[in-house]
Every structure is written in structure tokens, then in C-alpha cells.
UniProtKB/TrEMBL annotation:
Primary gene name: rnp4
Source organism of the structure: Halalkalicoccus paucihalophilus
List of residues binding Zn(2+): 54, 57, 80, 82
EC number per UniProt: 3.1.26.5
Lineage summary: Archaea, Methanobacteriati, Methanobacteriota, Stenosarchaea group, Halobacteria
Cofactor binding note: Binds 1 zinc ion per subunit.
Name used for this protein in its record: Ribonuclease P protein component 4
Residue stretches in coiled coil: 1-28
Length: 92
């Protein structure tokens, strides 16, 4: 595992912790930093990271608190507070 990969995983965990503690600004900084590291190292972000972060405003998404979840035509649609939609296929 590369150092960049480890840092991204660590930042994801920190973002989750911060979001759980209602420290959204701090969570957002971790998300933004993890994204920069991924870009610089040409790494793909983990799927869990892509699902639970907003690529428009870098919020760490928490369904029911700062994100709305809807099921639509076999897709999960997550709507961020900033208005961005994220869709991904839903597999039962
Ligand atoms: Zn957003």
C-alpha cells in the first residue's frame, strides 16, 4: 500500500469522525485534502469515499442530516445540501 493511499484512507476516517461530531468545516477540509492527494498521485478514491462526499462542495455526506436519499429507477440518488445530486446504481 502506498503512502498516498494510506493518507487518503486516514483522511476519510478523520472526515467521518469530524462529520459525526458535527464539525462539518473540519470534515470538508479533510475531504478536500484527500481529493488533492488522490489527484496528485493519480489514484482513484475509494468507492466509500466517492459515495459519501460531495464532489461539488466537498461535504462529507450524512444521509438524513446533510443529504437526502431517494430511490429512483434502480438508482440511489443522494442530494447534498448544496444542491448537487449523486446517483449510483442500487443493487439489492
Ligand atoms: Zn455539495
Amino acid at each position: 500500500m502506498s503512502i498516498a493511499r494510506e493518507r487518503i484512507d486516514r483522511l476519510e476516517a478523520l472526515a467521518k469522525e469530524a462529520a459525526t461530531a458535527n464539525e462539518d468545516e473540519r470534515a470538508r477540509e479533510y475531504v478536500a485534502l484527500a481529493r488533492r492527494i488522490a489527484e496528485r498521485n493519480r489514484l482513484r478514491l475509494p468507492r466509500s469515499f466517492e459515495r459519501f462526499t460531495c464532489d461539488r462542495c466537498d461535504r462529507y455526506l450524512r444521509p438524513g442530516r446533510n443529504a437526502r436519499v431517494r430511490l429512483q429507477d434502480g438508482h440511489v440518488v443522494l442530494t447534498c445540501e448544496c444542491g448537487a445530486h449523486h446517483r449510483y446504481p442500487y443493487r439489492p
